[in-house]
Structures are given as structure tokens and as C-alpha cells.
Give the backbone structure.
Amino acid sequence: MGHTIRALAAALEAVAFGNLDLEIDAISEPSSASARDLALAMSPKFAAGLAKGGARAAVIGPDMDWQELGLEAAIVAPRPRYAMAGLTAVLDPGPEIEPGIHPSAIIHPTAEIGEGAAVGPFVVIGRNVRIGARARIASHSSIAEHAQIGDDALLLQGVKIGSYVTIGNNLIAQMGATIGGDGMSFVTPEKSTVEQVRENMGQVDAAKQSWTRIHSLGAVTIGDDVEIGCNACIDKGTIRDTQIGSGTKIDNLVHLAHNVVTGEDCLFAALVGIAGSTTLGDRVVLGGQVGVVDNVTVGSDVVAAGGTKILSNVPSGRAVMGYPAVKMETHVETYKAQRRLPRLAKTVAELQKSISKLSGND
């Protein structure tokens, strides 16, 4: 069923022009748009593709003329990328999870399932679990004993929630996400090679050592409005809970180790790894493949570029980059200097030759 330009503009709280009763079924890139697509021509660079496609309507930027672009209607978005969030929310039908509880689901009699919840095939829900209203749980997901999940949760296929995990409202967990596995905590009877290296950063004394498990007695506590990507893993705490602040968004294949604490509204891109007992403030943004060592503190509003390795505390408000992490501008200058090294080495070699000749003449 189509959406009118008028309705879409109202949903976005944006201004629209032209034929506001024009209906569209989907959004598209300008060059591949059909007559019933809304083209995303949010800058002149993208608008150039309108001539190749068949779109009659588009989302455009504030300084663009929809009539000059040959459109019948347009939605003007002052912040075009933000408008995409609203458009995709309106047009996304969401996963198909049938209402009610599927006959193949296994639910412990002590579990409490909120009103309006949907539980898919082969879901397993353990003892004393509490799930809020309107939760949607897709096939092959499992929720272990004593876990609590708030209202309006969406668990996609294969999500695993461990025992005693507590999650707020509006959770979105993508396929294969695991919350509440044991942390990697092991100790040796004698001083381990790892401890030796921490002390002296030198050669270790080779010795037989065996690892003894420290059991995870904590759980995981997650706030409201948190999203967790495919195959991301959040470990239980050892004694206290691992904690994820409200509004935090976690990408695919991210690992948060035992006792990690994050603030609110953090953003972690794919393959981020945060080692145990690390604390992060609010609104921390970590690019892809960022690594953070254990037992450090990262302040609020820190931004780390992709591939950065954080080996020590980072103060609030700092942008960092590189391995080891340094101020972003410092890393850029260092990189420029590294690129000049071959030329510098050549210059030094030529100077050495000149000095040698002069010394020989003496």
C-alpha cells in the first residue's frame, strides 16, 4: 500500500512541495528509481542520477530546486541523512513473527510472558524468566533462567540470553547475538608469564603453567533502547554485573568482556573489542576494529577512529587514532612524517657521502 508525499512529510516533520497526493511504495537511489519510488537525491551529487531513473518524487536538500530537477513532488530535509531514519522507519515492515506463542516453543511454567508478546518456533524460555509486553522473539532464540527483558523487545533468530541478565525496554538484538556468556577469567597457581610481562615488559621465565577458571557470578545489566548486532557477545561480570548504558548501539561481531561498564548513547562499530573491567563514559564512539585494553577508563564524548588501539586512559572529549592511540592530529602528523622517511633517509645518505668526501680531501 502506497504512502503519500503528504503523509511522509508529516511523519518527518518536513516541508513538501508539488503533488502531495502522489503515492510511493519504496525509497531508492536516484539512478535506479522507478515511478513509484521516492528517490534519495539529498545533494547535487546524488541528484545527478535522477535523469537515469524514473522517479517522480525525491527527498532533496534545502538548497536544491525541485522543479529544476524535473520532479512532480519533493520533500525538503534540512538534515537529509537524519530524514533517512524517519523514512526507513515508516517503510520497514519489520520481521514476520506471528502473534501468539508457536506450538513448538518450550516455555517453563514459571515464566511470565507479557501481554501481546509473540514467540516464534523452537524458542526456549527458562525458569522464572520475565518478558515484557509486546515482545517479539524469533525462532531458535533462548532465554535462560531468571532473565528479565522489558517491554517491546525484538529478538531475532538465534539470540541467546544468559541467566540473570536484566534488560530494559525496546531492546533490539540481531541474529546470533549472545548476552550473558561467561567471561574469560583464568588464573595460575604461580605467577604467570602474563604477570611477568606486565611487571618487566621483558623476557619471561619459561615454566609450566596451567589455567584455573574463575567462575562468573555476576550477570549483565542493559538499559533501555539498546541495539546489539549479529553475533555480538557481551560477557557476564565476574562478581558485579557487566553494564551497558541506555541508548547504546553495538554493531556486529563486537565483544564486551566481563565487568565492562559503558555509559549512555555509546556507538561501537563492527569488530570492536573491549577487554575486562574497562569503564567508558557517555557517547563514546569507537570505529571498526578498535581495541581497548583491560582496566582503563575512557571518558565521555571520546571518538576513536577505526583500527585504533587504546592502551591507556583517555580523557573526556578527545579524538584519538592509531596504535597506540594518540590525539588524532598527532597521529596525522606522525603519519605524514613516516611517509617522508624514505626521502629523508636518501637525503641523509647523500649528506653522509658529501661529508665523507670532504673529510677525505682534508
Observations:
- The chain has five helices and 39 strands.
